Every structure is written in structure tokens, then in C-alpha cells.
């Protein structure tokens, strides 16, 4: 799990767990609270892993949720024949690349109407997460490319996956965690900084954003 410090990404916690176990995610989040994370995260970004979201709602119920568009696109397209995947992918991009939530919803409706009859299962995978796929519109536009997908997280752990894959079966639990920690701390200084760092205090203060634009607060 990581956080931002100004414009930099920082590691907050590391533990091993059983796949997408709710209990494993719960333990990680409770450990963060124990170590002083008193303010719930404003937004959590992840794929459809049920354990991640179940534990989030238990420990940080007020945190907003954003589903990953990269994973969702793959899930939807995998339920469609290859002959229509390229065209359908373009229509999915029209949703999350829209300038406003209203335009995104219009593109969303178009996708449902266009593919819903012939590819009901694919469309159902999209529709069930509609609200949490569009949550990013309530955050600064400068942050959208960081929070629409889990790609920043995936790239962070690419080196860890590569090294642990090479040494699979040769490490104990303790040495495996130690190696992952060292690799992540070494890579941390090279992680790409976040755009729109000046917006972070505004989010913490609870200032509203609509379609990525800061809303002027009425005078007291």
C-alpha cells in the first residue's frame, strides 16, 4: 500500500497475504490505523478483487472507490468475440476519456445500447461497476491519469514480481518479505511523481471538484 507525500509516492505498509483474502487486506489496513493513519484515504483504486473492497468498507467505510479501467476493459473485451473487440475497445475509451461525467455517461449509455443485446454478459460486467468506474470525475483533472487505473501500482511492483518469480520456492516467508521490502525501497526514489501536487491540500480540506474542476466555496 502506498500514499503520496506532496508529489511523491511512498510505501506505507507491506505484508504477505493469501491471494485476495479479505482477512489479509483487513490486517494490513488495521495495522496502518494502529501506526497512526487516523484519516481515512480519500480514494482507493483497485481492480475487482472482492477481498480488497470488502476490507476497505470495514476499516475505512468513508473512502471513495475507483475501479481500474485497464482491468475492466480487459474483463469486458474477454467476454466478446475477437471480431468486435477493437471497435468495442474504442467505445470503452470514449467513456473514460470524456471531459465531463455527463459525456462519460452518454458514452456509457451508447456502449450499453450498442452491445447489450448481442453481448449481454460483457455489458453486465461494465454496468455493475458504473458508479465506481466514474468516481475519478470528482477529483482534480490533474490526477485523473493517476487514478483511473492501477497502472502506477502495477509498475511499482513489476520489479518485485520479476525477482520473486525467479526465486520462487527458494525463500522463506521472512526472507521473501525482506527482499520485497528492499526492492521496493530501492525503486521508490525512481517512481514517477504525481501531477497536481498543489491540489492535495484542497482534497484533504474537503473542497469539492466537479468534472475535475475546483468548486468555489461560498463566503462564510
Structure in a nutshell:
The protein is mainly α and 220 residues long. The protein has twelve helices and six strands.
What distinguishing features does this structure have?
two-stranded parallel ribbon; 220 residues; DNA-binding; DNA recombination; transposase activity; 2 domains; mainly alpha; globular
Description:
This protein has 220 residues and is mostly helical. It has two domains: 2-67 and 136-199, no CATH class; 69-132. Helix content is 52%, strand content 9%. The protein has a two-stranded antiparallel sheet. A two-stranded parallel ribbon has the order 3-4. A two-stranded antiparallel ribbon has the order 5-6. β3 (43-46), α2 (50-59) and β4 (64-67) form a beta-alpha-beta unit.
Radius of gyration: 19 Å
Overall pLDDT level: 88
Spatial strand arrangement across the major sheet: 1-2
- H/I helix tally: 12
Head-to-tail CA distance between termini:
38 Å
Overall geometry comes to globular
Report the major sheet. 2 strands, antiparallel
Tell me the strand percentage band. Answer: 5-15%
What's the count of strands?
Answer: 6
Helix coverage percent: 40-55%
- Structural category: mainly alpha
Please tell me the total number of domains: 2
How would you name the oligomeric state of the polypeptide chains in this document? single chain
Organism: Rhodovulum imhoffii
Keywords: DNA recombination, DNA-binding, Transposable element, Transposition
GO biological process, one term: DNA transposition
Protein name: Mutator family transposase
